[in-house]
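Here is one chain, start to finish.
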Amino acid sequence: MNAYTSNFAAASGRLAPMLSRTGRPFRITLLLVLVLITTALNFLRLITVIARWSALGGYLSQQELAYIAVTGAIWTFLGLYLLWIYRRGARHSRLLFLAAAILYAAWYWIDRLVAQATPAANGGFAAAMTALLLGFIAFVVLDPHNQPYFGRETHERKREDQRTT
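Its structure:
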């Protein structure tokens, strides 16, 4: 047991939620890592299609290349925005995390079933992982114990603004 898991909950006698070195629960750190990985993969998607546009043009139409670039850019900027609003402590960040997760899952399945010429054979596994990840994100975002980590109160932001001016 380390210093972060040795804190006991006062009333129940159970171990307090495991905290990372930043003071936030480990599951929130996992959520942020998931957003960061998704953002990085979509940035890689965008950069790859831009860098290899002429080579990929022999295999895909210009519309398909543009689709890959635009969706890569959209998900990259949305991921960066989510990380930014979390860092800023916006009150609506919880809802945006959940909405982004649902939209990403919907886009993934529409892209997989409609846009891809030959669907991948791992549909059952992909469906299970989608449900598992959406469940995890919903659990983390909707858990009332995590609410303080997704937004600061108005008076806290005012104090911070007064210190910076």
